[in-house]
């Protein structure tokens, strides 16, 4: 398969009504591309991190009524799953593509990670670009750009992930659909690769 990037048709999948119809469209249009990106970036991330990485394409298997509003491929150093581990993600909402480093609520070490992030707040500000975004909840499309976040707001995000069971910490890059659809496959892969290299210090903080 040649990867040609994502099209408006891919993003429009998330406007299809009904679980069965939307899942069929995800499987037909988006999943093959996520599989490609999974196979492509697994060796790249293994080299970058120094860990053997495995990719996991979202199956949305537990859904019985509501269709998914986003879908993704995740990378972690565990063959069985990614949710309990620090991981990277590439995925789509209707409005944008996201490239994340993530510590979500299932991760048993997220409290320790939040503490390290709090202690290294100034260093993180130096290494993570201002146009990158932060989120405390992977189930919502919204995120806050680093440029608009005060130091105290960042510290509060780090503290929350230490204290609140459902709190999460995600950092990455959002690319709006107009930008993504103008990129060819090679250009998008380069952007994703650059983002992973930028986010690597957060992974190494574990």
Automatic annotation (TrEMBL):
<dbReference type="Pfam" id="PF06335">
    <property type="entry name" value="DUF1054"/>
</dbReference>
<dbReference type="InterPro" id="IPR053707">
    <property type="entry name" value="UPF0637_domain_sf"/>
</dbReference>
<protein>
    <recommendedName>
        <fullName>UPF0637 protein BHE18_07000</fullName>
    </recommendedName>
</protein>
<dbReference type="InterPro" id="IPR009403">
    <property type="entry name" value="UPF0637"/>
</dbReference>
<comment type="similarity">
    <text>Belongs to the UPF0637 family.</text>
</comment>
């Amino acid at each position: 398969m040649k990867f040609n990037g994502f099209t408006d048709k891919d993003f429009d999948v998330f406007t299809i009504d009904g679980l069965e119809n939307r899942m069929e469209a995800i499987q037909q249009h988006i999943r093959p591309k996520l599989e490609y990106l999974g196979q492509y970036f697994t060796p790249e991330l293994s080299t970058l991190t120094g860990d053997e990485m495995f990719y996991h394409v979202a199956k949305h298997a537990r859904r019985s009524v509501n269709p998914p509003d986003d879908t993704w491929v995740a990378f972690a150093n565990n063959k069985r799953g990614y949710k309990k581990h620090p991981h990277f993600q590439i995925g789509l909402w209707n409005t944008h593509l996201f490239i994340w480093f993530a510590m979500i609520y299932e991760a048993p070490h997220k409290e320790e990670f939040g503490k390290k992030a709090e202690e290294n707040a100034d260093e993180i500000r130096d290494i993570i670009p201002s146009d990158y975004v932060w989120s405390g909840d992977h189930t919502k499309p919204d995120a806050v750009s680093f440029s608009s976040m005060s130091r105290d707001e960042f510290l509060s995000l780090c503290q929350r992930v230490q204290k609140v069971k459902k709190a999460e910490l995600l950092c990455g890059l959002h690319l709006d659909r107009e930008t993504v659809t103008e990129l060819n496959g090679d250009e998008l892969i380069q952007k994703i690769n650059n983002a992973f290299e930028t986010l690597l210090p957060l992974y190494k903080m574990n």
